[in-house]
Amino acid sequence: MYEFDWSSIPGALPFLWEGMKVTLVITVQAVLIGIVWGTLLAMMRLSPIKALSWFAAGYVNLFRAVPLVMVLLWFFLIVPEFVGQLFNIPRGTDMRLSSAMAGFALFESAYYSEIIRAGIQSVPKGQISAASALGMTYAQAMRLVVLPQAFRNMVPLLLTQGIILFQDTSLVYVSALADFFGAAYKVGDRDGRLVEMLLFAGAVYFVICFSASLLVKRLQKKYSTA
Amino acid sequence: MIKITNVSKHYGDFKVLTDCTTSVSKGEVIVVCGPSGSGKSTLIKCVNGLEPFQAGEIFVDGTSVGDPKTNLSKLRAKVGMVFQNFELFPHMSITQNLAIAQVKVLGRSQEEAMDKGLKLLDRVGLKAQAAKFPGQLSGGQQQRVAIARALAMDPICMLFDEPTSALDPEMVNEVLDVMTELAHEGMTMMCVTHEMGFAKRVADRVIFMDQGHIVEDDSKEEFFANPRSERAQQFLAKILHH
Fold this sequence. Notes:
A: MetI-like fold; B: alpha/beta; 10 strands; about 40% helix
């Protein structure tokens, strides 16, 4: 019978916290860039200009048809070489965090853009007509009338996608980057208490994600009754 | 003010408008009626370029609507429009609804826009609702706000696209009263509506449309007394007998 020994966890907490910071940084920046770039992609996709619409459709379909872990590997292996040459960054510079951040942001944008596109389409067409009839340009109508309503409908979905993203950050282990999961793995491996450490990490992920989901549900209720 | 010449529009093979020609002079009130699917809503939406058309010309205040070089936003800012489903902005308060385009399109200051908005709100009898949101108002109240919102832009003419069709019967009159008052003040108006009582009281001319054609374009006296086409006679018989 395996004997659990949790004694190494308190001492590992500072190191785990460092990992959690990496996880949070990647999550937050990917959510923010994902929403901004995703909004632009969604607007391109819905734009009457064919070239923009095709570009956005191509982008979204490409990233949605490729596993995340592979995108992360591309960014880990190929992009640093390329960017390093372009900006004359010395070889061997640690670009793991920035390439992981770029990978996540660009990948998640594809998913966010689909959520946002559905959100924009959920706003009745008459709203654009009304805004246009008042003399607003297409851009003004989008910014002042359509997007605020679309985002209000989308808040729960955007947050849920953020929770998924938070969990997916653990995939940065492919680049040996010490996010929360990576840190837990490393420290558990070092102390010979891998099972305990991974169970603990799992519990932390669960508590964070589950409470976030509950929060989203409450928000959803509030919005749907408002 | 509005000059529509030989306007045609089609979706694929389906002709929505065929060779429509008419005009509206300054201060004139025109009622456009006809069975559903006759193209009357489409025609009125062509006037401010919300619907594109393939042939013909529309001039509003001397500006060609169909000309690709025309700044449509600028033109629309001068032409008020009221929609069947009100289309107030649900995420803004009533005052914001009234102010937003004044500020963002006409460049008025927030205070000036609010002031103007409140005055117009008072005029349509809804000053007490200023701080509310559209969802808290009845349909009739929302439509009156929508009229005030259009008037806040100091339009040179107003287009009404079935403004009472989505309303409960007891709310129709409050909206028609506002429109009647507007007409008496000399506003140039083009109204798509089935309210023949309104047409009889207020209109200068009545246009009757059927299957994308303008079938009758007459003074209201002439239209109600002796409609020339059989289609208009049938339509009037149906609509006036209940």
